[in-house]
Structures are given as structure tokens and as C-alpha cells.
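Sorry to interrupt, but I need a hand with the structure work. I would like you to pick a protein and set down its sequence and fold. Please put the record directly below this note.
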Amino acid sequence: MSNLLSDPAWATLATAEISDALDFLRLPGCALGVHRVAGPAAIVGPAYTVRFAPVDPDRKGTVGDYIDEVPEGAVIVLDNAGLPDCTVWGGILSRLARHKRIAGTVIHGVCRDIAEAEACGYPLYSRGHTMRTGKDRVQVEAVQVPVSLGHVRVCPGDLITADADGVVVVPQARAGDVLRKALATQAAEARILADVLAGSTIADARRRHGYHTLQRGDDA
């Protein structure tokens, strides 16, 4: 992981602040429709990507063998095309991932065994959950390739951040720009709040600290 992606400052930022920075820089990144379903409400780490496809009838499909190769601290990103009819993650994987100190799992699709993920404290984000297994219905097509979280492209090593508001993807190549802008936004909003609590009107505080340019540049 690059020094930028491992910067502890990422863990101080909410997805809303990172989203605002992405908007300012005119970058995509918000994985709309993917929400927390289990475990702690905040994760951050580099993406380890997995793409699924319908099972090949000539061989049995595999769903979770890739986990042996996932490094500590990574966020597993699973792309099952957003399909709601079968799962690509379950209780054994949650418990093993927690044991391996994987940061969390984000799914463009659905998962199951929510109670097990909650019980072991494993962060899990997806489009929903169901009981129906993916075994012999889908198989791993490729690992560590570009995948999709809805309309957002995720490449191996991109930074994934998630909290109670949802999931945001930061492209590796723009991580420095996004981090600097997100921290600046965080600082400006803190100054606005301090002024308001000290007696300023919110309109004056916002004007003083450039609130209306935080998400959009002056030329936007």
C-alpha cells in the first residue's frame, strides 16, 4: 500500500467529507445503494477485488477460495452484478475474514448469515441479504481486476472507505488530491460550527468560511 493510502488521516474522515472532495474534483466514487448490514460502522483500506459470473455447468462454481490470498487490512470488494437472487458471502467467510484481520467486505450483490457477522464484529456492506446460497449458481470469474460497485469502477488497490452513510471509492492516482481537499473541507466545517456555537448566524459563518465553494469550485 502506498504511503498516501495508509495515511491515518483517512480514518478521521467521514464518507460525506470524502464525497464532497470527490464532487469538488469532479470524480465519481459514491457506491449508491450499498449500505452497512453488519459489524462496525466504519472501515477503510485498499480494495481487493473479485468478480463473479454465472456458474459454468461443466464445473462446480467456487465462491470463497480467494480469501486465502487476501492480505490483512484490505477491503474485499465483490462484484456479482448487483444480483439479489443468491449470496456471495456468508458466515464462514465473515469469521475467517475477522480472524485474518481483513478490514471489511463490500458487495455489489447480497450476502447472508448476518447474525454471524454481527456476532464476530465483522464489517459487512451490501445491497441486501437473503438466505439463498451462491454455491453452484455463481463462480469466481477473476480476482484483482477492475470491478463495479453499481456505477462506480473499482480497481485493485483503490481506497475504500465506508461508514453509516455508505461506501466511497477513491482512485489511487488521485488519493493525494482527495485527501487534501477532504481535510480542508473538514477543517472549514469545524470553523463554521465553532462560529455558530459562539453566536454567529449560520449564514454569516458559512459566507465567512466559503461554505458554498466546499463542494464546487468557483468556476463550477
User: Anything to note?
Assistant: The first strand starts at residue 35 and ends at 38. The chain has two domains: 22-27+171-220, 28-170.
